[in-house]
Amino acid sequence: MNDKHILVVEDEAITRAKLVGYFQHAGYRVSEAENKTQMMVVLENHHIDLVMLDINLPDEDGLMITRNLRSHSNIGIVLVTGRTDSIDKIIGLEMGADDYVTKPFELRELLVRVKNILWRISLTEQKSVIALEDEEDDDLFHFGQCSFDIPKRKLLKNNIPIKLTKAEYDILVAFVANPSRVLSRDRLLNLIEHRVDAPNDRTIDVLVRRLRHKIEDDPKDPQIFTTIHGEGYLFAADVT
């Protein structure tokens, strides 16, 4: 993991120094920034694998930064904040964050979360390389107006590329592998690699809502990702 580069964006100097020192000791390359302006300079000049981002920055809200980063990048994003309101966690996930931790946090737990995210990123990159060398399309699926190439992590709707976060990709793979089958939230959490531990976890609802907005013709009247009240979700499209 010592080739991975982490960017710590935190305006509180003591917390920033603690995070930088801990992850450097764990063997990572670490850069730091105290606001969005400094963060953008680092991103423009270095390849960053994961951003550890404080929500309460002086020059821009971390949730907005998350949305902007996710709109053009698959970089790992961990939101770190002192806020305890669960709605912030839901919004953060909706914006495209991979994980969310609240202060005070256990550094060893944060390290495990970062390792898991970086591992998933590496796995996805390895699959992409293998897919480029493989001419077969056994893992190319079609449903509705979409085609989904699992090894290449490539989703097209009407031949237009649709960007997916790692969590969205994981849950879509789970749905495509289980068409016309009702999947409970717990079952979906077990099928996907992305997992956020939180009381009253609504991660699956957030991810399904995001997929509906990206794939459904009318997200308010979903025909592909249908809700089975009291049971879970059903992937209702015909998969070929």
TrEMBL record:
The keyword Transcription regulation applies. Pfam families: Response_reg, Trans_reg_C. The keyword DNA-binding applies. One of its GO terms (cellular component) is protein-DNA complex. The modification 4-aspartylphosphate is found at residue 54. Residues 5-118 form the Response regulatory domain. Keywords: Cytoplasm, DNA-binding, Phosphoprotein, Transcription, Transcription regulation, Two-component regulatory system. It is found in: Cytoplasm. One of its GO terms (biological process) is regulation of DNA-templated transcription. InterPro entries: CheY-like_superfamily (IPR011006), OmpR/PhoB-type_DNA-bd (IPR001867), Sig_transdc_resp-reg_C-effctor (IPR016032), Sig_transdc_resp-reg_receiver (IPR001789), WalR-like (IPR039420), WH-like_DNA-bd_sf (IPR036388). One of its GO terms (molecular function) is transcription cis-regulatory region binding. Residues 138-237 bind DNA. Gene3D superfamilies: 3.40.50.2300, 6.10.250.690, Winged helix-like DNA-binding domain superfamily/Winged helix DNA-binding domain. Residues 138-237 form the OmpR/PhoB-type domain. NCBIfam families: PRK10766.1 (NF008034). PANTHER family: REGULATOR OF RPOS (PTHR48111), TORCAD OPERON TRANSCRIPTIONAL REGULATORY PROTEIN TORR (PTHR48111:SF58). This is Two-component system response regulator TorR. It comes from Colwellia demingiae. The lineage of its organism: Bacteria, Pseudomonadati, Pseudomonadota, Gammaproteobacteria, Alteromonadales. The gene is torR.
